[in-house]
Write a structure and sequence with these properties.
Layout: H1 2-21, H2 24-38, E1 45-49, H3 72-83, E2 93-97, E3 101-107, H4 111-127, E4 133-135, E5 144-149, H5 151-157, H6 163-168, E6 171-175, E7 180-185, H7 191-204, H8 232-242
Parallel strand pairs: 3-4, 3-5, 5-7
Antiparallel strand pairs: 1-2, 6-7
Helix pairs in contact: 3-8, 4-7
């Protein structure tokens, strides 16, 4: 072991000596390559300031000047949906993903929901111009996990989930720092209801966490609906969060 340590020390010393012989531009290039190799961002769900503070390019001050293309009504709805929460206390910060989203869908094999997911992902990619969203076949490469099944089976998959909440809900999403989880109950909801839930939960997991009673045609409407497409105001909200 001592001999191995001595060899490693010798290699390091020689490497430093050789590095010093390089020209300044070569040294800078090597340093940048090392920095790029070691720079791993573990936080992919970014905070977006809504109150005028912050700093850095990732912060978005909630300033009306940024939203001159939108009406006061739309801005008010955006604040309600993006800063409120369906469960728990309202937020003081907006959230959005700053990495590409890779979705893995599993559980019961439901071809019509697979196709519906393809359609939703296509629409979102047409709306959002800052990240890409795709469906993957390998869970190890995913950061969004959609489970299709019963609430009892999902409880087995994720034991920490609140059983009462699962029992009362036909669809849920949970967002964490680097990944999100979505559950769609395909045993209690019919086909059209499942499609609605899939679109709603996936869209809300993007950072639009709240529901509202304002617009019955909106995917974020609080009461039960059968909406399976985005209302124009929904598209505006997604663009406001990700493109502006």
């Amino acid at each position: 072991m001592k001999n191995l340590t001595n060899k490693l020390i010798t290699i390091c010393v020689v490497s430093i000596f050789v590095f010093c012989l390089f020209g300044k531009s070569t040294q800078t290039s090597i340093i940048k390559k090392i920095e790029n190799l070691l720079s791993i961002d573990y936080s992919t769900l970014k905070y977006v300031s809504s109150g005028g503070g912050g700093g850095g390019d990732e912060w978005l001050n909630f300033d009306k000047k940024r939203y001159t293309a939108h009406s006061e009504e739309t801005i008010s709805y955006f604040k309600e949906i993006a800063l409120g929460r369906e469960y728990g206390e309202a937020q003081t910060q907006l959230y959005r993903w700053d990495v590409n989203l890779k979705i893995y869908i599993y559980g019961q094999n439901t071809p019509y929901l697979n196709q519906e997911l393809n359609d939703i992902v296509y629409e979102l990619n047409e709306i959002i111009n800052t990240i890409d969203i795709e469906i993957v076949s390998n869970p190890s490469s995913a950061n969004v996990f959609i489970y299709l099944g019963s609430y009892l089976d999902y409880k087995k998959e994720r034991p920490n989930q609140n059983l009462t909440l699962l029992e009362e809900s036909w669809g849920l999403f949970a967002v964490y720092e680097n990944e999100s989880y979505i559950y769609i109950d395909v045993t209690r909801a019919n086909e059209i209801e499942q499609k609605h839930l899939l679109r709603e939960e996936l869209t809300q997991s993007l950072g639009l966490f709240n529901d509202s009673y304002k617009y019955p045609e909106s995917i974020f409407y609080q009461d039960w609906t059968y909406t399976t497409e985005y209302a124009p105001i929904d598209i505006e909200l997604i663009k406001m969060l990700y493109n502006e």
